[in-house]
Amino acid sequence: MKINTLKWARVVLALLVFIPTVLFFIDVFHLMPFKWKAVLHLQLVPAILGSLWGMVIFILLLSLLFGRVYCSVICPAGIFQDFLSRLSAGKKKRRQRRVLKYAKPQNWLRYSILVLTIASFVLGSSALVILLDPYSNMGRVLSDLVRPALIPVNGWIVNKAFSMGIYSLLPVTPAGFSWVAIVVSSLFLLTISIMSLLRGRLYCNTICPVGTFLSLISRFALFRVVIDDSLCTHCNVCSRSCKSQCIDSKQSSIDYSRCVVCFNCLSSCTQNAIRFQFVGFTASTQSTVKEKSATLKEEPLNVHRREFIMLSTAALASAPLLLANNAVSKPASPKLPIMPPGAGKREHFNMTCTACHACVTQCPTNVLIPTAFEYGLSGFMQPKMYFDKGFCQPNCTICMDVCPSGALLPLPLKEKQMTQVGQVHFTLEQCVVYTNHTDCGSCSEHCPTQAVKMVDYKDGLTIPHITPEICIGCGGCEYACPARPKAIVVHANYDQQWAKKAPKEKPKEIEVQGFGF
Amino acid sequence: MKRRDFLLTTALTSVASMLRFDKLEAALKSNTISVSSTPDLVAVMGGEPAFMLERALAKFGGIKTFVKKGQVVVLKPNIGWDKTPDLAADTNPELVAAMVKQCYAAGAKRVEVFDHTCNQWDRCYVNSGIKSAVESAGGIMVPANDESFFRTVAIPNGVKLKQAAIHRSLLDCDVWFNMPILKNHGGAKMTISMKNYMGIVWDREYFHRTDLQQCIADVCTFHKRPALNIVDAYRIMFKNGPQGKSVADTALLKTLIVSPDIVAADAASVKFFNQVKQMNLNEVAHIGMGQALHLGTEDLDKLRIDRIKM
Fold first, then answer.
1. Mean pLDDT across chain B, nearest whole number?
2. Pairwise CA distance, residues B61 & B277, whole Å
């Protein structure tokens, strides 16, 4: 039997991207080499937001050359759906009984969603990007559903290891969850699972803005899957194998705006009529080896005119909604969420973060948690710092290193140590020293800049004294404070600032002659 | 006959009068039996950590006084902070490694080292230099960053602390050594041997909430005492402690203070520290509270102290 080399090449490449991506998000054992985070840079939406133009151009060229290979090889949602499709395919014999068949494109739906997403982003809201980007959705599924489920499994394995004296595996603190993120991730997972089990790449061809965007280019691809009309018997087998439902066997034509170049169809044909080959520049989105009659040439024009009218209407209709959203995007509440270091200006962060939660899973001290609407509509599920389970370590830059979209800029350590994400705020009446008349000092102990310093109080006790300008907002004080309610907390800066540098103290030569006792 | 008897009786009486039974209780509790007279506290100055440790231990009869063949030993240094050794936030890694080697030389089966850190535990273990030093010497670094490592035990003699979750390595070992570094502390005023106990418990927040000074003294009454308190004063932190900001907070003093008496060790350390920056013994309330709980004596004049300058 002839081996479908292209398909297996696709599968191998897809796994090479998918497995490190998944492991990176669910890495409960912390065994992943940190350099593997580079695999996240392959994703299109973060690359665009992070101005990684090299990667963007690479993906566009890839799509221009080969069509929507991105959707089969790079997109984690796509590869996941392929797993599910394979499940529903079952044994080879049952492939004959699959529910897939040619379906007409839902252009009005997918283009209006793309236009809405772009228009709303341009007008200042990244809500649709966050909700629809397949990479970010899969990131959330892995961070907020899979990883929490693995933590007890990890705990069980680790306990067994401890009893054998093996300390190289460690328990993971359950932290960083939010109910909103769990619900939204579950909805997405349910949606694409049902869609892919029943209708293959339905999400990719009706909703996904990345897929739709790439479809604008893939229709001009230089290498395409092509049906040789002279050999084709119109038996429909290739249609039934097509996850994108884009092969019209009757017409021996393939819709290249929907083909995800998975090559499944290549081995389905018994007549050797379907091939992947170079076709050169063709204006038509659908083609066969033999050019059809003029009626086919006219159809694309009508389709384009219709689509244009529909797109503009959609844009105009959505404008008021988006402008209204923009007006309420500045939250007036004093309970501002604290952005992770590297976020910079709040607007920049809200517009660039796609809430993929890579930083949430990678934070070694569980400081980051997904929000619900605390950032407003534009900041749905974006992460904030919270100091329940840990505080930001002075020598750590992991969240910034991991962020694939540049929402958290990769600051060098020295700059991160000067970044003020928020300022300390102290309430004397709640302090243990004030209420109990006993020593504490937990806050100052944890302060890396000594913005919180212990000073003489009374009866030999010391009490905190704060210098907010040199505070960096790491949350050490808030985390450590034993009082309830906390006597010392961090208040978020709207935009991140530079902390004032404390005056450098000169080292002195100190000697002692005796022991002193 | 009578003269011989008289001389024999005199000889026996004088020998008997030199025996010190007040140390027997402490000796039994801390796994040492020393019939000969040993110092109560040894202070060494002017050498590298490994050599100073050797000299100090020799005064007590060598490491074999404390560690027997086949025993499991735990060392409890200060590894609380993600700082390099030159910043004097954690115990000198050379000292810890030297102690690991000493224990293995005495025939220990296994030497474990841990601390419940304040910063991210793996960074502390690595950047303090203690992990690589201990592992090069054949010791085992045990994590303490999860509650599952700790077991709740009673502290019946505590005034405000009646129970604590203590690290199981310490609970299960045969003998342990307390190895703090000498630093000032914003809340407790000083962090030396007694304060170092806070790294063996899980819930430190309870201490801070419920009278820090008293809880420090209370936890030290736990029945399993360290065989020795080995105070690292090679490089001390005298301001901005316990975390410190820069090398300007440190002083290179090349000193080691060793004693089985935790109160004496801390009292001597405060007097030593006072030469660098003013600190009175009564400011460090937990030391006086420790004496009140019969953990030892701060009255250094009553003790035999051996001072060694190298």
1. 93
2. 34
Q: Establish if A180 touches chain B: CB-CB under 8 angstroms.
A: no
pLDDT tens track for A128-187: 999 999 999 999 999 999 998 888 888 888 878 877 877 777 777 777 678 899 999 999
Q: How far apart are CA A259 and CA A229, in angstroms?
A: 18
What sign for the dihedral angle of Cα A152, A154, A158, A161? positive
Distance from CA of A258 to the nearest CA of B (A): 48
Q: Are A167 and B143 in contact (CB < 8 Å)?
A: yes
Using the Cα atoms of residue A56, residue A58, residue A61 and residue A65 in order, give the sign of their dihedral: negative
Q: Is A371 left (phi over 0), alpha (psi -120 to 50) or beta?
A: beta
Residues A49, A407 contacting (CB under 8 angstroms): yes
Could B187 and A442 be called an inter-chain contact, meaning their C-beta atoms sit closer than 8 Å?
Answer: yes
Closest partner residue to B120 (CB to CB) among A364, A480, A483 is: A364
A486 in reach of chain B (CB within 8 A): no
Per-residue tens of pLDDT for chain B, all 310 residues: 678 887 877 777 776 666 666 555 655 555 555 555 899 999 999 999 999 999 999 999 999 999 999 999 999 999 999 999 999 999 999 999 999 999 999 999 999 999 999 999 999 999 999 999 999 999 999 999 888 899 999 999 999 999 999 999 999 999 999 999 999 999 999 999 999 999 999 999 999 999 999 999 999 999 999 999 999 999 999 999 999 999 999 999 999 999 999 999 999 999 999 999 999 999 999 999 999 999 999 999 999 999 999 9
B72 and chain A in contact, CB less than 8 A? no
B75, β-bridge pairs: B113, B177
User: What's the CA gap between A253 and A276, in Å, rounded?
Assistant: 13
A 157-176 near B (Cβ less than 8 A): 158-159, 162, 167, 170-171, 173
- CA nearest to B264 within chain A: A517
Min Cα–Cα distance to chain B from A28, Å: 14
* A511 CB burial (10 A radius; 0-12, 13-18, 19+): exposed
Farthest-apart Cα atoms in chain A, separation: 107
In A, minimum Cα distance to B235 occurs at: A510
Chain B: residue nearest A456 by CA?
B186
Best of B110, B207, B208, B211 to disrupt the A interface (most A CBs within 10 Å) is: B208
Q: Which of A155, A460, A482 shows the shortest C-beta gap to B208?
A: A482
Which of B277, B271, B292, B206 shows the shortest CA–CA distance to B41?
B271
Strand, coil or helix: what is A212?
helix
* A263 closest CA partner among A229, A226, A225: A225
Q: How many CB atoms lie within 10 A of CB B8?
A: 10
**Chain B residues whose beta carbon lies within 8 Å of the beta carbon of residue A501:** none
Residues of chain B in contact with residue A446, where contact means CB-CB under 8 angstroms, are: 118, 243
B75-121 pLDDT, tens per residue? Answer: 999 999 999 999 999 999 999 999 999 999 999 999 999 999 999 99
Reference B148, options A325, A211, A174; nearest CA is: A174
Nearest CA to A399 out of A368, A356, A420, A354 is that of: A368
Chain centroid to CA B182: how far?
Answer: 11
CA–CA dist A435, B94 (Å, integer): 43
- Give yes or no for a cis peptide into A394 (omega within 30° of 0): no
Q: How far apart are CA A212 and CA A115, in angstroms?
A: 10
Decide if B310 touches A, using CB distance below 8 A.
no
